[in-house]
Amino acid sequence: MPPSHGQKSCYRNPTVGLNSAVNASSTPTLIFHSYGSGGPQFRLAADGSNILHLESAGANSARNPNPYGGGQNSYFKKLHIDGELSVDKNVGIGVANPQNKLDVNGTVHSKEVKVDMSGWSDFVFKKEYSLPTLEQVEKHIREKGHLEHIPSEHEVLQNGISLGEMNSKLLQKIEELTLYIIEQDKINQKQSDEIVFLKQRLKRIEKVTNSK
Predict the structure, then answer these.
(1) How many other CB atoms are found less than 10 A from the CB of residue 32?
(2) Using one digit for the tens of pLDDT, what is the confidence trace for 30-56?
(3) Residue 135 sits in the same domain as residue 104
(4) Is position 187 within any domain?
(5) Which alpha helices (H) appear in the chain, and where do they start and end?
(6) Are both 9 and 81 inside the same structural domain?
(7) Phi, psi values for residue 141, rounded to 5°
(8) Which of 5, 60, 131, 133 could be joined to 71 by an S-S link, Cβ 3.0–4.6 Å?
């Protein structure tokens, strides 16, 4: 039996309806239907989809188009959760059918992003690593149009990039460049020593020649 005037209403038929307004309908149209005039609505669809709708309330109580009757309305603009939120399946923000744990159609602003990795690129510094020669690097660039182990522009535009994997690949190239620079520095130092030696030899030759 419905409660008296001024009390909240609860109906079971076999759906459940909660209403903070007076003279509430005793025939809720959803499995769970909470409706208050001017307040929020909670709707659990009875069509087998198990979708929970959070909507702003008004004279027209459901979003259009909708199977429950009513006219145009809008979902909540903000949702605040003071605690933990656990989601078993995928979540989409601006994405109708998310294919990953979190799909976002837009910019993600964060103080920090932590990516778990199963490996890193320090193998470049191991003795057994075969550093490509610059001739091999040049040949690959000329034939493929991009660095080896780095995805091409076409692949990136089609598939995007994985932050962890890409950072690892970029670090690999940085470490290879570091080895090239070290090797080039050794060559430069050797050439510098040879130049000093040749200058000293030239001075000795000039001194002997001028003394004659």
Answers:
(1) 15
(2) 445 555 555 555 665 555 666 666 655
(3) no
(4) yes
(5) 134-144, 153-159, 163-211
(6) yes
(7) -65, -40
(8) 60
